[in-house]
Design goal:
Elements lengths: L1 E18 L4 E11 L2 E10 L3 E3 L3 E11 L15 E6 L5 E5 L2 E7 L18 E7 L2
Antiparallel strand pairs: 1-2, 1-5, 2-3, 3-8, 4-7, 5-6, 6-7, 8-9
């Protein structure tokens, strides 16, 4: 069973940052316009145990899927029954084994990370979140 959590097939995304000490990653889309407001879309993953994703993505769909035991690269240290599947518009498929997925909007400069103290600040607006146990 696949549950679509996020979809944007027109945007250009890139892996912006990874924090091994806090097990977090951020994938960013820049310059999304909404009623003349320009902002970034940050796709934030927390409690990351494993990942296998492209560093640049043309469009993106993020699904919550049942863990498939055929995925050799995905150890299961946390005994999660589900993982996040990432598919771009050209057919690249990747996976992020994480406990939390959050979509944030912010107005940071292109290469300024949203990890660290900024993540849960008022300037980083949470739009959607999902937790895998």
């Amino acid at each position: 069973m696949e549950e679509l959590l996020y979809s944007d097939l027109n945007g250009k995304y890139f892996l912006l940052d990874y924090s091994p000490s806090h097990s977090e990653i951020v994938i960013r889309r820049i310059n999304k316009s909404d009623s003349n407001n320009i902002f970034n879309i940050d796709l934030f993953f927390k409690s990351v145990d494993n990942m296998n994703i492209a560093t640049k993505l043309s469009g993106i769909n993020i699904y919550k899927v049942a863990r498939n035991n055929d995925l050799d690269l995905m150890s299961n240290h946390y005994e999660r029954k589900e993982i996040y599947k990432i598919v771009d518009s050209v057919g690249n498929i990747g996976f992020v084994d994480a406990g939390v997925f959050v979509v944030f909007h912010n107005k940071l400069d292109l290469l300024t990370t949203s990890l660290g103290d900024f993540t849960w600040s008022n300037e980083n607006v949470e739009v959607f979140s999902n937790v895998i146990n």
